[in-house]
Amino acid sequence: MKHLTLILTMFFVLSCTTQKSRDLSNDNLITMTFSATEINDLVIIQDFFDNCIGLAENEKQDNIDKVYFDFFQQNSDITKATDLKIPIDFEKQKGLYNQIDKKTFEDIWSIDRFIKRDSNDTLKNVGLNRHGKYFEFLKLLGGQDSTINKYYNTLEVAGDISPSMVADLAINHEKYDIKDPKVRLVIAIHYLTLNDKFERKEKY
Fold first, then answer.
1. Are 149 and 142 in contact (CB under 8 A)?
2. What is the arithmetic mean of pLDDT over 49-70?
C-alpha cells in the first residue's frame, strides 16, 4: 500500500512539473518583469494562440512539439511576409484584446498610423511597443537565449517586426526552443502582431 501511495505521489508531482513547464506564471523572468494581472493576461494570450494552431489544453510536451512543428511547416517555404499562413480569426483576436487589461495591451503593442499607397488612406497600424515591458522582457530573455537575442537586436534596429524577422522565424524555427514557455510567448506575440498588421483595415 505504501509502495502504491509513493508511486501515485510521484506521478502527481511529475504531472504538475510537466504542467508548470508550460505555465508562464511559474517562470522567474516572467514574474520578475510583469505584474500578476499582466501575467494572467499573458497566459490568456498564449492559450489563445495555442488554441488557434491546434494545441489542446494540457497536452503533453511531445504534442506541443508536433503541433508547433506542423504550424511552422506551413510557412517553411515562404518568399514574402504576405505569404504567411496564420490560422487566427481576426474577429476572435479582437475579442482577445477585450479580455486583457488595457495596460497589458499597451505594454506589448502600440497603435500608430500609416498611409496606404494605393488609396492614400491613413490607417491604424499595430506594432510592438518599444517602450513597453514586453520589449524589456525580450532584452532580458535575449541575455539567456542567443536566438531571442538576435530577434531582439533586429527588432531594436528595425523598430518593428521586419521582413527578415518574419523569414527567420518561419524558416529557422528549429532554433527557437519551444520547450521554453517564454519562447512560445514570443512566437505567439510575433504572429498575433503580424496577423493584426495583415487584417486590420481601420482608419486612423
1. yes
2. 87
